[in-house]
């Protein structure tokens, strides 16, 4: 344990307040590596989450307010109290993004002479994400925050390149993907069978939100279904787009073969029941779920985001759809349905790749600690 590293994180990680969740377990493991780890999570009353969770040197606080403005004010109030009551410690205030959480994080750091650290879990500065005036304004603010922070952690080389292009000093950027214990997924991959699969089941796992572009998966699946009725699609997750996506399946008359499954922390089980993993995000910081799919021995159809090109390689672990047309995605799905040999080749290659890359939790946590080294 390093008694000189005390972290106050401003976060969206609601599941850190859910007993036994994967996110909570991950935070507990991080906390064991530092002296004091406190996380303020933006939550609303309607989330029905506890206001506080404590285990050893980890404490998670929920804002538990009715409005977004209320979340900001409550987060600042909680953070101010923590820093004032423990002012003898040297604190690092870590914001989960250079946007909303950094409003609170930077204010706390400046007011209480703490160090401001910023995390970037996506790639918000990609061309696809800067079309609207509002996003461009936010990006100007975010670029300012990143340039003036003491250190930045990103989850992919792709994201680092975007941030460096904004004028952020490359020497203060650490590339470290989000941690996940892939051993349960590797167990799925080790047992996977590829021969005589019927029906071929496609799978999506993640948030049901607009940037995930799940509508493209559904539209493409509908076209492939016209050619081959022996396919199914499982969509696992929750989000604001759920109803519109369900309506889309009705529009294409495929509601009987598309199943919407509520979010489950047992993602390995979801992977074990599928044959091909589908992903169509507009942008990703890393795309951990792609790593989980590869570890599970699933061939992948994905857009060119996150860890694609770094870990997941086109025509080695699956098919990377590099353009925005539905036709190219349709062709990729159709190839997965009709070419059993390629499914097996991609799936086994993915499993072997992640098996070789798999590192111990202790090694990862040390890297997480080291991501603060620029500012310590």
The CATH homologous superfamily of the largest domain: Glycogen Phosphorylase B
Low-confidence stretches: none
Number of strands: 14
Compute the average pLDDT: 92
How many individual helices? Answer: 13
Helical content, roughly?
40-55%
State the distance separating the first and last CA atoms: 15 Å
Strand order of the largest sheet: 3-4-2-1-5-6-7-8
Radius of gyration: 21 Å
Overall tally of structural domains:
2
Explain what the structure shows.
There is one protein chain. The protein has 376 residues and is α/β, with parallel strands linked by helices. It folds into two domains: 2-180 and 359-375, Rossmann fold; 183-357, Glycogen Phosphorylase B (Rossmann fold), CATH 3.40.50. It is 40% helix and 19% strand. The protein has 13 helices and 14 strands. The protein has helices at residues 22-31, 68-85, 100-111, 133-148, 157-164, 183-191, 214-227, 242-251, 267-272, 288-295, 326-338, 340-357, 361-370, and strands at residues 2-11, 34-41, 52-55, 58-62, 91-95, 115-120, 151-154, 173-175, 200-205, 231-236, 258-261, 276-278, 300-303, 318-321. It has an eight-stranded mixed sheet with strand order 3-4-2-1-5-6-7-8, with helices on both faces. It has a six-stranded parallel sheet with strand order 11-10-9-12-13-14, sandwiched between helices. The model has no long low-confidence stretch (mean pLDDT 92).
